Every structure is written in structure tokens, then in C-alpha cells.
Amino acid sequence: MPFSELPPGPDPWPAPESRPLFTSAHLEVTQVCQRTPTRPQGAEWTVVHRKNACVIAARTHGGEFIVVRQERIPIRAALWEFPAGQVDESGLPTEALLRETALRELQEESGYRLAPGGELLPLGHFFSSPGFSDECIHLFLAQPVEPAPAGATPAEGEAITACRTLPAQELAGWIARGDIRDANTLAAYARLCALEQNPAAP
């Protein structure tokens, strides 16, 4: 999936004039001139384009959530998180591609897979840092999940040091104490609570 492929929204703005400043496999930095409803002459902005990504709130047959501990170099720390990963380019339709990504990242990072008869429910999307980036995160609930025969197979460049299950109430406690600090996990949990799909919602 190319950078800056945004989900449709109401009253879309015109495409900006843009000039690339830096490009890598995971992001692209551009200087844009964007016309907006209050700035018809255009506003200059530096934008970081990122691929879409999927975050998976996965629950076992017993209702426990799967979390992984992953090293995050920019903050020089390891964080407990829901499994997540970027969407690669593919010929699949967007909905199928997002589902494929969610299931792949769940297995690769945690070693769990959707159990027979299980369901993968889309929970919508959010923008992680709209002040400087167009990164769009798609949220999913996978339930129930079970250990995959192949176990975890993290992608090259990932350093996942642990995986564990947390009862819903314990996950809520971790969040309340600040032990969960990853924005993707916090957003997925908040969406679950708002949709009343989490029986331990505070």
C-alpha cells in the first residue's frame, strides 16, 4: 500500500503540492502546500507519510488479552503492546489486505492465530499523530485466539522479548498505572471500551 493512502472522509481537501525531502522503506518526508477551508491560499507544512498499519486486540478462549514486549529504539525502552504492523503493498482489495495484515502480524509477533470458528472484527481507524503525519491505524478484535503451531516468527528488525496473556481486569490495571504506554494499544482498548465489547471496561 503506498504512503498517504487515507480512508475516505467527508468534504475531502484537494491534493496538495508536494516536494519530497527524504524517503526510506518505512516513511517519506515531504514539504507540502495544502489549501484548506480557512487557508485557501495554501499552508506550508512538513508531513511524514507512513504506511497504514493494523493493531490487533486478541483474546483467548478464556477472555485474556495477548500482549507482547517489544524494544522501541526511538524511546530507548521496551513496551508492552498489542500486536501490530504495517500494511505491505498487495493486489488484494483494501479490506482483505487489512485482514490479512492483522492475522499475519498476530501470528508473527505473538505466536497466536485465530481459532477455528473465531472472528476478526474491524474496530475502525484512528490517526496516530495528525499534527505531522498521515499515519492511519486500523484496529481489530480477534477472538478467540489459540497458539499457532509455528509459534512466533518476528520480522527482521523486530526485537520482541516476551509475550503473555492478561485477564481483562489486569490489563485495565496496567493501563491505569501507566504500565501500558503504547498509543496503539491505548487506542484499541479505548475503542473496545467505547463499543462495550470489553466486559472489564472501567
Question: Mind sketching the topology for me?
Answer:
Elements: E1 17-23, E2 27-34, E3 43-50, E4 53-60, E5 65-72, E6 77-81, E7 84-86, H1 94-110, E8 112-127, E9 136-147, E10 160-166, H2 168-177, H3 183-194
Parallel strand pairs: 4-9
Antiparallel strand pairs: 1-2, 2-3, 4-7, 5-6, 5-10, 8-9
Low-confidence region ranges: 198-202
Q: Describe the strand arrangement of the main beta sheet, using strand numbers.
A: 7-4-9-8
Biggest beta sheet attributes: 4 strands, mixed
Instruction: Report the radius of gyration as a whole number of Å.
Output: 18 Å
Mean pLDDT across every amino acid position: 91
What is the annotated CATH architecture of the largest domain?
Alpha-Beta Complex
The helix fraction, in percent, is 10-25%
| C-alpha geometry | elongated
Number of helices: 3
According to CATH, what is the class of the largest domain?
Alpha Beta
- What is the CATH fold-level name of the largest domain? Nucleoside Triphosphate Pyrophosphohydrolase
Structural class per helix/strand content? alpha+beta
Work out the number of β strands.
Answer: 10
Q: Quaternary state, please?
A: single chain
- Assess the beta-strand content as a share of residues: 35-45%
